[in-house]
From TrEMBL:
Domain of life, per lineage: Bacteria
PANTHER family, per database record: MAGNESIUM-CHELATASE SUBUNIT CHLD, MOXR FAMILY PROTEIN
Organism in which the protein naturally occurs: Inquilinus ginsengisoli
One Pfam family of this chain: AAA_5
Domain ATPase dynein-related AAA: 41-196
SUPFAM superfamilies the UniProt entry points to: P-loop containing nucleoside triphosphate hydrolases
The protein's name in its UniProt record: MoxR-like ATPase
Length: 315
């Protein structure tokens, strides 16, 4: 793929994201533009399913850069995130050297701790040069890791380098584009946040969510899209265990389109709640009378908005 020049303004950044079918608001585009311009990591925090990870994917696709993804989890360590030595190959090298009569053990030790035996994991891969330009490094769901791993990341995010005791310090010739995401299941240490620009990615308003549906699920009828967004927006005002994100809105739209649904009704909502709600307690709360009540309120609000000329009434 051919590399594309970085955007030179906030408007260019909005256009870049739009080419990747990502509907961003101006504050997000501003934070991203500054991170790209000033070569700083961008720390994106927000609820699951609001589009944080997608930003890195869109940047990779629209800029023509290699995407390197580090999916975080509890217990993630350096051997999985940065590098490890290929012990099998090292042992084979030792045996071959001994069979060949090698006597210099110091030289043998230097030989086996050579880059030929180094297995590069995502963080080290992202520091390597590439013909298309610096990679897009996605450090996804950092809040799932332990605090010691956060401490290790400080060197990577501030100096774009890692230190391997046997080889020394490996530094990127040009910093990668770094996107760090967190679902805020725990607080990330201030030392790490200071090395990044920060943006909270919130649920979109109705207008932006309709635009997202239009971009990501263009096969959904316009009237149904409007109803889907209005219903999901109402769900987010309830005290649910897990509110539906944009990802769930898209899943629901695709599911309803596949079922040839043209309009929401209580039966349709009941049968497909599992595409937007992921906890049984939430599903039980919305089923039945609550779903009918929400649909009734939704229709009344959409009718009133259409009468006021703020939105078009679905047909």
């Amino acid at each position: 793929m051919n590399a594309v020049a970085l955007p030179t303004s906030v408007e260019d950044t909005l256009a870049l994201l739009s080419r990747g079918d990502y509907v961003a608001d101006r504050p997000l585009a501003t934070a991203l533009f500054l991170a790209l311009r000033l070569k700083r990591p961008l720390f994106l925090e927000g609820e699951a399913g609001v589009g944080k990870t997608e930003i890195a994917k869109v940047l990779s696709a629209t800029l023509g850069r290699r995407l390197v993804r580090l999916q975080c989890y509890e217990g993630l360590d350096i051997s999985s995130a940065v590098y490890e030595w290929n012990y099998q190959r090292q042992m084979l090298e030792i045996r071959l050297a001994e069979a060949g009569g090698a006597q210099d053990r110091d030289q043998l030790a230097r030989d086996i701790f050579d880059e030929r035996f180094l297995i590069r994991r995502p963080l080290l891969q992202a520091l390597e040069p590439d013909i298309t330009g610096p990679a897009v490094l996605l450090i996804d769901e950092l809040d799932r890791t332990d605090e010691p791993f956060e401490a290790f990341l400080l060197e990577v995010l501030s100096d774009f380098q890692v230190t391997i005791p046997e080889l020394g310090t490996i530094k990127a010739a040009e910093p990668p584009i770094v996107i760090v995401t967190s679902n805020r299941t725990r607080e990330i240490h201030d030392a790490l946040k200071r090395r990044c620009f920060y943006h909270w990615v919130d649920y979109p308003n109705a207008e932006r969510e309709r635009a997202i549906l239009h971009a990501k699920a263009p096969g959904t009828p316009a009237a149904l899209s409007a109803q889907i967004v209005a219903f999901v927006q109402k769900l987010r005002r309830l005290d649910l265990f897990k509110q539906p994100g944009v990802a769930e809105t898209l899943d629901w739209a695709q599911a309803l389109t596949e079922l040839d649904v043209l309009e929401l009704d209580p039966d349709v909502v009941r049968d497909t709640l599992g595409t937007i709600l992921k906890y049984q307690d939430d599903i039980e709360r919305i089923q039945g009378a609550e779903a009918a009540s929400l649909l009734s309120e939704m229709r009344a609000e959409m009718t009133a908005a259409a009468a006021a000329g703020t939105v078009s009434l679905p047909v």
